[in-house]
Amino acid sequence: MSDSGFGVRMIERLIARVAAHTALQARPCDVDGLRLWALEHPRLDRLVHFRIASGAVDTNLLFLFGRSTTAQPHFHAQVVQFAPDACVYNADIVPRLDPVTHPAWFTSVYGPVTKAYWQATGNKANACASAPGNPAIALYLSPWSIAAPRPTISEELARVGPMIEAYLDHCLALADSFTYDAAPAELSSRDRQHLELLHSDALDPRAWKGVYRSIGEEAGRRAKAILATPLHN
Per the domain annotation, does 233 fall within a domain? Predict the structure, then answer.
């Protein structure tokens, strides 16, 4: 699939928003389709774009990771385009702490994007309004996820795009001003375990088997290691 697909164009717009906020330093990577940037920012660690083009299916995965020793949330977006005007997508602000022990963190991080969440999911014309979700995966994401797991069209992605951009912009704004009192060792340990579980074969075996079929298991496991490993300690 060419670089002109609407799915990859949206991901590139999100990357441009990050680049406009913080300088990106490209890092070498030996996985085809994976781009890695380091961010020299006190609360941001790395930006990863993982693209897998297999026949008519063009999968674009994006992560903006906060530093592991901070309470900065991670941003995630994905668009899978499988026809000229068909796709599934999802976006989320990935939690770094737990709501029972750190309710104030959730209020600070998710309160400002609740309006954007309802603008996307409250529109009954959007597939994300009735996303069934996989509870096993949803456990490691947030209730503010915006997801269209059943096929939809580019028109919906265009409608929801501003809300996804609002999520990213909020994460970037948090990176400039957000402080939260939590032990760096606790944050780093939880982050490591969280990312290992989120990207484990057992959690989403169908997705990772598809990755291994497309680029090989060795390359797929190297990609997972990049997703899970901070560039800054």
Answer: no
Tell me 195's DSSP state.
H
Domain of 196 in residue numbering reads as: 6-228
* 178 located within any domain: yes
CA 117 to centroid of chain Cα atoms: 15
Per-residue b or e along 115-151, where b marks 16 or more CB atoms closer than 10 Å to that residue's CB? ebbebbbeeeebbbeebeeeeebeebbbebbbbbbee
For residue 201, give both structure tokens: 């074969």
Domain count, the chain: 1
102 is written with which tokens?
A: 């750190």
Q: Where are the beta strands (DSSP E) in the chain?
A: 24-27, 34-39, 44-54, 57-66, 74-83, 86-94, 146-152
73 with 81: CB under 8 angstroms?
no
List residues bridging with 147 in a β-sheet: 90
Q: Is 1 among the domain residues?
A: no
The pTM score is: 0.95
Structure tokens at 216: 């090989």
Q: Residues in the chain with pLDDT < 70? A: 1-3, 132
CB atoms within 10 A of CB 202: 8
63: left (phi over 0), alpha (psi -120 to 50) or beta: beta
203: domain CATH number is 3.40.1500.20
pLDDT recorded at residue 133: 73
How far is 215 from 219, CA to CA, in rounded Å? 6
Which pLDDT score, from 0 to 100, does residue 3 have? 62
Residue with tokens 């609740």: 114
